[in-house]
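Lay summary. Proteins are chains of building blocks that fold into shapes, and those shapes determine what they do. In this project we predict the shape from the chain. Here is one chain we studied, written as its sequence of building blocks.
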Amino acid sequence: MSSTHAFTDNLLQRLREAAAAIGQNVAFMEVCGTHTTSAFRCGLPSVLPPNVRLISGPGCPVCVTSQGDIDRLIDLGARRDVILCTYGDMLRVPGRHGNLENARVRGGRIEVVYSSMDAVKLAQKQPDREVVFAAVGFETTAPATAAAICEAQRLNIGNFSVLASHKRIIPAMRALLTDGEIPKIKGFLCPGHVSVIIGSEVYQSIVDQFGVSCVVGGFEPPQLLSALVCLIELVVNNKTALVNQYPEAVHARGNRWALTLLEKIFEPGAARWRGMGTIPDSGLILRSDYQSFDAARRFNLPEPQEREPAGCICGKVISGAALPGQCRLFGRACTPISPIGPCMVSSEGTCSAWFKYGKSNQRTIPPAHLNELLEVSS
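And here is the predicted shape, written in a compact code that computers can read:
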């Protein structure tokens, strides 16, 4: 037996023993879209003990972007005087009047970029057109948006702006813990990518205020399993704690350079979340010195109207209040080819993961076969 197999077998044995010792149902939540996809890809839910549940939370940045903000982007993309720059996973997110891909077919100038700096360079090359960058994502991508604004200011580029829809993860976690509709969460599997920026120390306030453990974990299947074992053993020992199991990437105080840059350009403010409403201090708002880069102000965009697609329960799926299979549209009217909600569009969306890997995640795979799944997915 290889060392990886021995390590995995030991973790599985500890998981089973801890679950048996608890003698009650427990639920943990991962708040990272990459964790969701990784867990489903390797079949992790299929080997969890019957009384242990892993819930997918609001970890997909595309999915949590409000319907109103999506509609704003589509409106901007349809303007003939605007070049809208966006990441590729935003193209097919449905709005009230189609999506960005439809707007591009109708003649809108919509460019897929790989970084915010690509948008700055485009604005520099085409000074006769307004270039707007669709700034979505958590603290992981927000520093890149801040850097782009700094660069545009340094180069005195007047035709560059951003429509900022960045989100902060800690206020969202607090909102989840006070939402009576959400199953009682015994612990969080905290996001690795976001934690690289914000650090691990910030989760201590969650532990102290709510008595819920927070474990920062990596993305490889053995790392996911290890984080779950840590969470359930804390429950067995009647303890709550903050544990950083991803120290090779996540430091206690995070990336100081990135945090300083964020503080320079942005300040916390209320933000709209799909299905979760407006959460105080959960967004990143441009500070007064940089509001000339705010596309909403520059184009005098009206306040968006929040209208969810008829029959879509993405909002409940995002917050862990419902499973994709409980949606009457899932796998029927709503598929990756013809998505109705963002959770089916994004590669990090829970509905997308369920559609791709759901059958292999039923509790029918003997734990002994997890090693094979881990090797295939790694």
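What the prediction tells us: Residues 314-356 form one domain.
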